[in-house]
Specification:
The chain is an alpha+beta fold. Helix content is 58%, strand content 6%. The chain is globular, with a radius of gyration of 29 Å.
Length: 814
């Protein structure tokens, strides 16, 4: 095209790419009505952009193993963590240690050139080798150094020493708001409003510069002797509206975090206003608006509970003050104040005796109920679902009177065990690591860390690490083994370590060795329903179905509320095509976990295989909260494909937020699914583009996972879509070589099903596809194929006109 045409296409692309899906479709339709060629050109750019976004996504895998090993080997002296007192660095003389926190260590020092007191802030020792942490420290200096306001702390300079990067900041006289609240609370109403107004003014300056603090809390507010309040520590600040670090870690302190920050969603300036609301509530009442014994329960309260009106906690509190606080604590950011400047003006009005100007939108009771339903899946319930769909670690550890002589390490261990119970694996992993940093010989903590790694590796849970959910979890298979072996070396016979070794062999798909370890673990964990469930899984992998069911039932008998074992048992029944028993067990599960929406979806798929109709699955999907409907993109796509609505299926993929949380079947790469859908629509150009993109990604994945049969299946489907018949057949054969078809091993039937899908897309191999489906139907445990499902399965649409396929259906319908 000419330069003018290209400029026009580029301008339209830049306009449309920023629109949401519905507005984008409308805009493209308008363009197509007058200029179809222009619409096609813009759509091609949008498709290329979508593919590039996926290919260029950052796969930062969290804190490196080097960092963790370093953390476990560095001694920590709380009086002088870095051993800097009395030393001189550059032009700073270090006097003593002031404080330590989650992000760094602060020392009192003197600038010997300007003869002024300063505070020097360093990252924690085990972050000094992390390039991302250094980058964040520099960003802190840039963010804070660019801001000039009486209520903001400035940064003098950033330097580097043999201890790493550090920031030089003013050393203020006075106390933190945290110290003042500890000394006397609640504060006088006038004092609380005066502090809040200054914080709002400081935030307004930062927000105007595009900087969000994201960790506003009492410890980050300094109160000077003259009454000035200064906001400290923009270490978590970031220009823009992103809420996670490059390693995916959600930043902030739980009690002061906004709901959107806890969920890992993007945040903007309104998140800081929520934190200001929590601060103001605490200053006025002496308590925080959302309480709990653990981070999990606090996060649950922030997401689901409404705060008590401050006037019910503190008698005589003016109603207009209460209204302002509650306006800041609206769970929906759209219902909060729109700017910190607006908050400061309302505080000034209230101080002068006037009513605040801002009024949050009214929320009818029905809307409040809907909001609560949409967020009703508490973190504990999320953990239960994750565990039910994957291999979760046992919740009861073997009892040892004194597992470590280090009291602080033991406290970390006990806290980690609680997080592990509730499925918040990233917190458990962090605390177990901290326990090992204090006592490297703490065998029980090392075994539990291995179990956490195994649970996360099996489940791929978003709760496993504080990370960007778009990123893959780190594969810690070797670490599971090394930690378990180290624990057994330190404490032979430790049940938890044997359990961890069993999980390792289970994930290596060696059920015989896994079962041997599980039986050793029974000596200390015999009353753990999770262990019996693992034994049941091992029997299931060996094709010992009756024994598998017996062990799973034993686990449920030990703990009648053990939803994990119920899910495993329901899955086993489904694999055996005992759909009625599977549905009944899922009903029992859901009676205990009614908000376990993923389990509802699984139940709907059981009915799909059982009856071959969409009625149950569609009814279940229609009752899901709106956020879960979007997250359940696989169900949307499946329903749309069965009903021959490929455009709706593509729209479901477009609107699906990461991660793609389905958990029912191994996820098919997006590019392949998109390519198949475009092929079904007759759009061969786009189909080929997505197939080719998938081919490049999968070739690289094949080099990294040479023995992964699922990767071979995906590669075979891609080759079939590209018309590369020989390559497709070779991939299908490779998948079945890697996971040979068997009458007992479940994964073998998965490989058979995948190979049949590949052959179904190659006309000359339709006979081979039907032969594989025939063998699959003969398997005692082959839930991947049932007559009702095969009649409607979109993967085998190409076979329906083949008389041999119809004969197959008739053969197994008798």
């Amino acid at each position: 095209s000419s330069a003018n045409e290209w400029a026009r296409i580029s301008a339209l692309f830049n306009e449309i790419v920023e629109l949401d899906s519905a507005d984008r479709d409308r805009r493209l339709a308008d363009i197509g009505a007058t200029d179809p060629a222009l619409k096609t050109a813009v759509e091609s750019m949008l498709a290329a952009d979508a593919m590039a976004e996926g290919q260029l996504a950052k796969f930062d895998r969290g804190v490196s193993d080097v960092v963790r090993q370093y953390a476990a080997s560095v001694p920590f002296d709380s009086r002088d963590p870095l051993g800097l007192a009395g030393t001189t660095m550059s032009h700073f003389r270090v006097i003593d240690h002031l404080a330590s926190g989650g992000m760094g260590i602060v020392y009192r020092a003197e600038d010997i050139r300007l003869h002024r007191p300063v505070a020097l802030k360093f990252p924690l020792p085990h972050y000094q080798v992390d390039a991302a942490m250094k980058e964040r420290f520099i960003r802190e200096a840039q963010s804070a150094g660019a801001l000039e306001h009486v209520n903001l702390c400035t940064v003098y300079e950033v330097g580097e020493s043999d201890k790493g990067l550090f920031l030089a900041m003013p050393l203020y006289a006075g106390e933190t708001l945290k110290q003042r609240l500890a000394a006397r609370q609640p504060l006088a109403v006038g004092e609380a409003l005066a502090i809040a107004r200054q914080i709002a003014n400081g935030l307004a300056c930062a927000h105007d510069a595009g900087v969000i603090h994201r960790d506003l809390k009492p410890g980050n507010v300094m109160l000077l002797p003259d009454g000035t309040a200064k906001i400290l520590d923009f270490g978590l600040a970031k220009v823009g509206d992103i809420s996670v670090t490059k390693s995916g870690a959600t930043l902030g302190t739980i009690s002061y975090m906004s709901p959107e920050q806890i969920r890992g969603a993007k945040v903007d300036a309104r998140s800081d206003l929520w934190s200001l609301g929590v601060l103001l509530y605490e200053m006025l009442t002496g308590v925080r608006p959302f309480a709990g014994e653990h981070d999990v329960s606090i996060a649950h309260a922030i997401l689901h509970n409404d705060p008590k009106p401050p006037a019910t906690v503190r008698d005589g509190l003016p109603r207009r003050v209460q209204d302002m606080v509650l306006a800041l604590l609206q769970k929906d950011p759209r219902s909060r104040y729109t700017s910190a400047g607006e908050v400061a003006r309302d505080i000034e009005a209230v101080q002068g005796g006037a009513a605040p100007a801002f009024q949050p939108p009214l929320q009818p009771r029905a809307m409040t109920w809907l909001r609560k339903r949409r967020t009703a899946m508490a973190l504990v319930a999320v953990a239960a679902i994750t565990a039910a769909l994957a291999t979760m670690a046992p919740r009861i550890s073997s009892a040892l009177n004194k597992p470590t002589k280090n009291a602080e390490a033991h406290r970390f261990y006990l806290r980690a065990l609680e997080y592990e119970k509730h499925g918040t694996m990233w917190a458990a992993e962090s605390l177990y690591t901290r326990a090992l940093a204090l006592d490297t010989g703490f065998a029980l903590a090392r075994a539990r860390l291995a179990i956490v790694y195994a649970a996360c590796r099996a489940g791929g849970s978003r709760d496993c690490y504080a990370r960007n959910p778009e990123d893959p979890l780190v594969d810690r298979l070797d670490q599971i083994k090394s930690h378990a072996q180290a624990a057994l070396t330190r404490q032979p016979g430790l049940a938890d370590a044997h359990f961890a070794m069993g999980l390792y062999w289970e994930q290596r798909e060696e059920p015989d060795r896994a079962l041997a370890e599980y039986k050793l673990a029974l000596k200390g964990l015999g009353k753990s329903g999770d262990l019996h469930a693992a034994i049941g899984r091992a029997y299931r992998s060996q094709g010992r179905w009756d024994e598998a069911i017996e062990e799973l039932e034993r686990g449920i008998a030990i703990n009648p509320d053990d939803v994990i074992s119920m899910a495993d048992l329901a899955t086993t029944y489904s694999r055996l095509r005992r759909y009625e028993e599977s549905a009944r067990m899922w009903e029992r599960y859901l009676a205990l976990s009614p908000d376990a929406y993923a389990a509802w979806i699984i139940k709907g798929n059981v009915y799909l295989r059982w009856h071959g109709t969409l009625d149950s699955l569609k009814a279940i999907y229609a009752r899901l909260p709106l956020d879960w409907q979007k997250r359940s993109h696989g169900t949307q796509v499946l329903i749309a494909r069965i009903e021959n609505r490929p455009l709706d299926a593509i729209r479901a993929l477009d609107e699906a937020p990461p991660p793609l949380a389905e958990g029912v079947e191994p996820e098919r790469p997006r590019h392949i699914l998109r390519a198949q859908l475009y092929s079904e629509m007759g759009d061969s150009t786009r189909a080929r583009a997505y197939y080719d993109s998938a081919r490049l990604a999968l070739k690289k994945a094949t080099r990294a996972r040479a023995r992964d049969f699922r990767t071979q299946i995906s590669l075979g489907l891609t080759y079939a879509g590209l018309g590369l018949t020989r390559e497709a057949k070779r991939a299908a054969d490779s998948a079945m070589v890697l996971m040979p078809p068997s009458r007992t091993v479940p994964a073998g039937t998965t490989a058979m099903r995948g190979a049949a899908e590949i052959f179904a897309r190659i006309p000359e191999y339709h006979g081979a596809a039907i032969e594989l489906l025939d063998r699959l139907m003969q398997m005692p445990a082959g839930r991947e194929a049932s007559v009702p499902l095969l009649r409607i399965d979109p993967e085998f649409k190409t076979l329906r006109a083949d008389p041999r396929f119809q004969q197959l259906l008739a053969k197994y319908s008798r």
